[in-house]
Structures are given as C-alpha cells and as structure tokens.
C-alpha cells in the first residue's frame, strides 16, 4: 500500500516511518511534488488535520493522512492548542514559542499540560480520525537537545526527563503522535 503523509516536517516523517511496517510505503509531500504551503486555518486541531488530508487527496489523487498537534496547558485554558506552532508569531519558531509559554506560566503553580495529536486519514473516499494524548507538565527551563517543538519543556507523566532528553524510539513508544500513529497503522493493516 502506498500512502502520502501530508507533512514537510522531516522529524515527524522520520518518527512515523520508524513505526510503519514494510507493507506500507510512505510518501512525503516532497515525494509527490507538492511544494505549496497547505494552510492550517481551522479553529480546531481536528479541522486542520482533516483539511490537509482532504486537500492532498483531492488535488493529487493519493490516499493520504495528515496530522495536527497541539500543546494544551491547563493554567492557560488550553492554550496554545491549535495555535501551538505559531504561538509566538507566524515565524513558527520553536524557541520563541517555548519562551512565550514559559513567560506565560511564570508564577503559576499549575503546570499540567497535554500533547494532543489528531491524524486524519482520507482513504478510498472515506474519512477516519485517530487521536493520541499524552499528559504531563511544563518544566521551568529547557532541557535536552533531541526532539522538536515544545519537547525541551515537556515532561510526560511517570517520567523525570523531557521528550527532548529521550531517544526517538523511547519518545515514539509513548508520545501522542506515536499513540495516534499506532491506531492508524492497526487500521491500515486490517484493510
């Protein structure tokens, strides 16, 4: 089976490729010649994932899945949420986003947060959604050099290190994207 992952994020593509079985050939947007910036203008994480998967499927004719992820912080009423990638501005800079978040949480005792990933699959003209959630907390300073996004300031429940301090395989085994991806893979392997 050949399927497109509607992403240009090489880190995400690597994470997902590591989880796929050999029977599934994963193509990136670059692989199918899609170089346009697919807008993420929906008001929800689900909406963005659905829009991207449908866009690629309709325009390029491939079965496709797309994901969107948000970091939801309890003390900030779920922010940055759907705006996680551009929390500190349209430049989508991870350091700027983390710095803004850490500043927003200064003097707040509740640092509970969760990563939420939704994968939208468009296959054989049907839509399917897969969700992955990992609860944890935001620490006060960045730790670790692996991972991407908010990984250096997020410690998952039951651990004492950030996602950015974990090897990719360790993170993938428990991450929000890993959970959603395993649900996607289970579905694809039963088609």
Molecular structure report:
With 191 residues, this protein is an alpha/beta fold. The protein has one domain (2-189): Maf protein (Alpha-Beta Complex). Helices cover 30% and strands 25% of the residues. It has helices at residues 10-19, 45-60, 94-104, 168-174, 176-189, and strands spanning 2-5, 25-28, 64-73, 80-81, 112-123, 126-138, 154-156. Strands 1, 2, 3, 4, 5, 6 and 7 form a 7-stranded mixed beta sheet that branches. Helix 4 crosses helix 5 (176-189). The termini are close together. The relative contact order is 0.17.
Per-chain topology:
Blueprint: E1 2-5, H1 10-19, E2 25-28, H2 45-60, E3 64-73, E4 80-81, H3 94-104, E5 112-123, E6 126-138, E7 154-156, H4 168-174, H5 176-189
Parallel strand pairs: 1-2, 1-3
Antiparallel strand pairs: 3-4, 3-5, 5-6, 6-7
Order of helices and strands: EHEHEEHEEEHH
Number of strands: 7
Roughly how many Å is the radius of gyration? 16 Å
Shape designation: globular
Query: What is the typical, i.e. mean, pLDDT?
Result: 93
Structural class: alpha/beta
| CATH 2nd-level architecture | Alpha-Beta Complex
Helix content: 25-40%
CATH class: Alpha Beta
Using the coordinates shown, work out and report the CATH topology. Maf protein
Uncertain ranges: none
């Amino acid at each position: 089976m050949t399927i497109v992952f509607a992403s240009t994020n090489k880190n995400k593509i690597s994470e997902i490729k590591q989880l796929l079985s050999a029977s599934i050939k994963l193509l990136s947007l670059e692989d199918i010649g899609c170089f346009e910036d697919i807008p993420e203008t929906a008001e929800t994480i689900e909406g963005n994932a659905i829009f991207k998967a449908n866009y690629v499927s309709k325009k390029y004719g491939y079965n496709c899945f797309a994901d969107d992820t948000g970091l939801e912080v309890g003390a900030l009423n779920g922010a940055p949420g759907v705006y996680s990638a551009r929390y500190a501005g349209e430049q989508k800079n991870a350091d700027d986003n983390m710095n803004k978040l850490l500043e927003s949480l200064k003097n707040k005792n509740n640092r509970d947060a969760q990563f939420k990933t939704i994968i939208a699959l468009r296959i054989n003209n049907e839509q399917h959604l897969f969700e992955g959630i990992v609860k944890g907390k935001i620490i006060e300073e960045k730790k670790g050099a692996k991972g991407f996004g908010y990984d250096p300031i997020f410690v998952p429940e039951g651990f004492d290190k950030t996602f950015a301090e974990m090897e990719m395989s360790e993170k993938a085994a428990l991450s929000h994207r890993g959970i959603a991806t395993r649900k996607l893979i289970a579905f694809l392997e039963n088609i």
